[in-house]
Write a structure and sequence with these properties.
Length: about 80
Amino acid sequence: MLSYTEENYLKAIYKIIEKEKNTASTNALAKFMGTTPASVTDMMKRLSEKELINYEKYRGVSLTNEGNKLANALIRKHRLWEVF
């Protein structure tokens, strides 16, 4: 089970990758989330341990297959809530 913050990070990574067609940098995530790069790095380590992202220091973040499925499901669920 993911925390609310972990879900938000997955959605942010998905949206940044979708826009940039590559990986999401910690600085881009920090700007998107309105937090510090150090906080982003801590969360990336946590999500990497859960095998939802591929994180390499200084190279950015990409979603694993499982992370991508989960991010898609979260975005769909939130869009449905917005409709209602």
